[in-house]
Amino acid sequence: MLFLYDKSNPPYSSLCFAHRRYLKEDLAANKALGDFGAEALKSIWKGVGGGLNLMTVCNTGSLATSGHGTALGVVRSLHSSGDLASLGVLETRPYNQGARLTAFEAVEEVRSDEDG
Question: What are the residue ranges in the chain where pLDDT is below 50?
Fold first, then answer.
């Protein structure tokens, strides 16, 4: 059953408002975590030269969060600053679904950079 925003239904309206607020807060937290993680990795590896080579396990991107991602948010932040050399994606569960989703998101990120 699909519910649409309905001003005549105060409890539902409150729920929609809370949901939108939560999504905005979660997205902001994801972006802050991504930037913080990127800066932490850069400070650890400064002076090594070249971009960072990272590996992630499972899906931690926008498909699993509100839009930016947690661990993949760090990857996005490094990519946007030009500090990512490569990304390896792994999965431990059957069918490699997390690795497939992460690889999809990574490819889409690069495509959006090339298009924009």
Answer: 1
